[in-house]
Write a structure and sequence with these properties.
69 residues; mainly alpha; 71% helix
């Protein structure tokens, strides 16, 4: 449960930044990779290759949707 909460917090911080402590926004792609990698740690098995493939598919899909809008 802690990894899921941490993944969502990291996503929010990386996406929007945290100006009060000097953390700049990193963008959607970096936030998606961080979210996926941290959330994957909550599972019983962690396979980095599969997680990176999933994160790439999610990032490319999100980028494509943002271009279409």
């Amino acid at each position: 449960m802690g990894f899921i909460v941490a993944a969502n917090l990291a996503f929010g911080v990386l996406l929007g930044g945290l100006p009060s402590i000097g953390v700049p926004s990193m963008g959607m792609v970096v936030a998606i990779y961080a979210l996926t990698l941290i959330a994957a740690l909550a599972g019983s098995t962690f396979k980095l290759k599969e997680v990176v493939i999933l994160a790439t598919i999610l990032a490319v899909g999100s980028y494509a949707v943002s271009l279409a809008c």
